[in-house]
Design a protein that fits this description.
Layout lengths: L1 H8 L26 H14 L1 H7 L1 H4 L1 H8 L3 H12 L2 H16 L1 H24 L3 H29 L3 H36 L4 H11 L1 H24 L20 H15 L2 H15 L3 H8 L1 H20 L2 H21 L4 H19 L3 H4 L5 H29 L2 H28 L8 H18 L13
Length: 480
């Protein structure tokens, strides 16, 4: 390491960080933390860091028929596997950033959360091997402890290594890789189960458990990425004398009392909308088999189309919303399109690819337009609390709705379930309309065009420079 440091910093004859004078000897581009090839390597590791988590999150959806048959559980019990993932994150969303900043640090925290993901998947698979469903639920709970916090760590690494405009691209690539993980899971886990069944000669809990263990290899791969990334980050810290990345989150629960009506409406939109998307995907494979007579392979393909579309379209829509503005209008379009998709799936026998493609486009658009609105309605010092609360109630809503959806399907069938999802989207639509009028009446900026917002921000910055004497300012905190 000392040799590398001299090679990298020797040109300056000393750096105050332990480097010693010496002749300038440049490191190879792939080994220099300041050079593009090395940063691309780090970016690849960041993207693969969450691949295993997203791959295994929807293992139950990809194997719904097999899980219910082999473990002899009803749909409500099956959907509890998703609820158990969400329960710990009702609380952990407030503390993930704190643990990374103040307790573990980004490197150790990422490795610990990756180990939780791996351990959770192993326990989940062992529950199937031992034909013990409650152990599978424990595994999903452990998996949930690591999953959401690992996403926070992933974003923290991104902010630490990339700045400015390139950061938006990095976030888009990370989201795309997450969706690719979900898509690969939907289309390969059924095949893995079939191959294990052929090998053992029978279907049952053992076959299911082995298939889940094989799927867990992706979590080990992500853990190895976390270890390599920790080494490279520590190396860059020594070579460049930079600090460990931090989330920058400041969580104060007392800030909740200061939240505006607009922010609470954004929370309602978030909970009601995602409650009609993720639980539907969790139950979608069997829905397409039973209603539209799809084969298991065709059902897996169409059930994953939302993630397939989201992978390339999320960065595109993010750029579009940044350039145009008008966030409420984009959210309105996304919610209306989602409602149309659920109505088509519930009451027609039209080709479901149409409805699912519309749902994929709407899902991608809503994420790009809704989440940035939080930063427009709360002060910067409350952003950590606002986003933490938003993620918390989202997980609470997903846990409750997942169980409710399973119970509805067991007792009423798919038609009532689709009506239930449509009702959730209608509540989200009502909240969007209310948000539009509240924003209009209070003179809010949620629906400003990007040009107007940039113009007013520039004018405000000019006024502050006139009023404020030139003093040394801290680096601004960039929240994405």
């Amino acid at each position: 390491m000392a040799e590398e440091q001299r090679a990298l910093l020797g040109a300056e004859g000393g750096d105050g960080c332990g480097g010693s004078p010496g002749p300038p000897r440049a490191l190879p581009a792939a080994c220099d933390p300041r050079r593009l090839p090395h940063r691309l390597l780090v970016l690849a590791l960041m993207c693969f860091l969450g691949f295993g988590s997203y791959f295994c999150y929807d293992n139950p959806a990809a194997l719904q028929t097999q899980v219910q048959r082999d473990m002899k559980v009803n749909t409500a019990q099956f959907m509890a596997l998703y609820a158990w993932y969400s329960w710990p994150n009702v609380v952990l969303c407030f503390f993930g950033g704190f643990l990374i900043d103040r307790v573990f640090g980004i490197r150790l925290g990422t490795v610990i959360f990756s180990i939780f993901v791996c351990a959770g998947q192993v326990v989940f698979a062992l529950g199937a091997l031992f034909n013990t469903f409650w152990l599978m639920e424990v595994g999903r709970f452990i998996f949930g402890i690591g999953g959401e916090s690992l996403a926070v760590a992933q974003n923290t690494y991104a902010v630490s290594w990339f700045k400015g405009k390139e950061l938006n691209l990095v976030f888009g690539l990370q989201l795309s890789m997450a969706r690719i993980g979900s898509t690969v899971n939907m289309n390969i886990m059924g095949w893995i189960y079939s191959r294990v069944q052929d090998l053992l000669g029978y279907a049952g809990p053992s076959t299911l458990g082995l298939a889940l263990l094989i799927g867990g290899v992706t979590c080990l791969f992500s853990l190895s990425c976390a270890l390599i990334l920790a080494y490279l980050d520590r190396r860059a810290e020594k070579l460049l004398c930079k600090e460990q990345g931090k989330t920058g989150e400041v969580i104060k629960l007392t800030d909740v009392k200061d939240f505006s009506l607009s922010l609470w409406l954004i929370f309602v939109i978030c909970v009601c909308y995602y409650a009609a998307v993720f639980p539907f995907i969790g139950l979608g494979k069997v829905f397409f088999i039973e209603k539209f007579r799809f084969s298991p392979q065709e059902a897996s393909a169409i059930n994953s189309i939302v993630y397939i579309i989201s992978a390339p379209m999320s960065p595109v829509f993010g750029l579009l919303v940044d350039k145009v503005g008008k966030n409420i209008i984009w959210v309105l379009c996304a919610v209306v399109t989602t409602l149309a998709s659920h109505i088509m799936l519930a009451f027609t026998f039209w080709n479901p690819w149409i409805a699912m493609c519309l749902l994929g486009v709407a899902y991608s658009l809503l994420a790009c337009a809704l989440w940035p609105m939080v930063a427009f309605v709360v002060p910067e010092h409350q952003l950590g609390t606002a986003y933490g609360f938003m993620q918390s109630i989202q997980n609470l809503g997903l846990a409750v709705i997942a169980i409710a959806a399973g119970m509805i399907l067991d007792t009423r069938g798919y038609l009532f379930l689709e009506v239930f999802f449509s009702a959730c989207v209608c509540l989200s639509l009502l909240a969007v309309v209310m948000l539009y009028f509240v924003n209009h009446l209070t003179g809010g900026d949620l629906n400003w065009s990007a040009k107007k917002r940039a113009k007013l921000q520039k004018a405000a910055a000019s006024d502050s420079q006139v009023i404020t004497p030139p003093v040394s300012q801290p680096w601004p905190t960039e929240v994405c």
